[in-house]
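[Help] Beginner question about ligand-bound structures

Sorry if this is basic. My supervisor gave me a protein sequence and a SMILES string for zinc ion and asked me to "get the holo structure". I don't really know what that means in practice or what format the answer should be in. Inputs are pasted below exactly as I got them.
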Amino acid sequence: MKSVRLHAAHDLRVHDEPIPETNDGEALINVKAIGVCGSDLHWYCEAGIGDAKLHHLLVLGHEFAGVVTEGEFKGQRVAVDPALPCGHCEWCQEGHPNLCPNTRFSGHGKDDGALREYMNWPASALFPLPDSINDEDGAMLEPLGVAIHTVDLGHMKPGMHVGIFGCGPIGLLTLQMARLAGASRIIATDLHQHRLDLAEELGATESHLSSGQNHEESKAILANTNKRGLDVVFECAGDQRAVDAAFESVRIGGTVVLCGIPSDDKTSFVASVARRKGLTIRMVRRMKHVYPRAIELVSRGLVDVGALISHRFRLEDSEKAFRIAEAREGIKVIITT
Ligand SMILES: [Zn+2]
Ligand SMILES: [Zn+2]
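Answer (accepted):
No worries, everyone starts somewhere. Holo just means with the ligand present. The predicted complex, written as structure tokens, is below.
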């Protein structure tokens, strides 16, 4: 089978390998579609993410769907949860498997991911897909799961005014979830006009093209909200300017949900602003048990995940796919086997 391995920063190579063996409780999956995620781009560009560094020729890929060829669910199309929390630690027992420090993760550290034709993965992490969800949309359920968890953390109420700062795939999915959660006003910001155009198609009521200057969008948003500001701001850019704008434009007593992953592994905010406003700050760490909701929302047409797919490449052209994703030319790049 073909697999794609990361040798170093900006160095992905196609390998020819034996089909992996399955262990107890595992299924063999013929991978069909894989999404390229911002976190994959950290690995691709920096040969690591945060404090995790490249230890072996890693197969990336954690947003994927395929067909089971061996084991439980044999013959069925499935979406795959790429995170395997231990299930035993204090945090797993407390109902926070997303915070488990012993989590194994597809395409991270020692665990090879989905950029290959076949992979073995525990059957307990597989979710059969209805026919109404195609393989590419099935791969989008993972980022949608993150967006569901992100909006869950915002504790939104119908009629709230929210900000989506950063309209990459996670931002655009978070936007749709915020709309479903009852936001009456959704202000989207981004550095790229094509992303804002899509944000408006997907439910943003207003958008601001950022020029990257400090205080620019917060001034505009405060002026547009009678100086009140937004109830909840979802920061989905992983960029300090977006974080600053979030703290400046959220209302007194409001909530900032930080979902983006900063390249330099540092996030800061002006303490006096956050303190005087008495803000609630929430950090997004992956997701909880949200796949059933993600499947329900996509199969009923309540969330449009397919609208985000801007580029498609074959597995052997993965290097090209990652370059396009790195250039932020489109929205979501999908690789098919
Ligand atoms: Zn991801
Ligand atoms: Zn655990």
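A couple of things worth pointing out: The chain has a mean pLDDT of 96. Residues 85-89, 91-92, 100, 102 surround zinc ion (ligand 2) (CB under 6 Å). Feel free to follow up in the thread.
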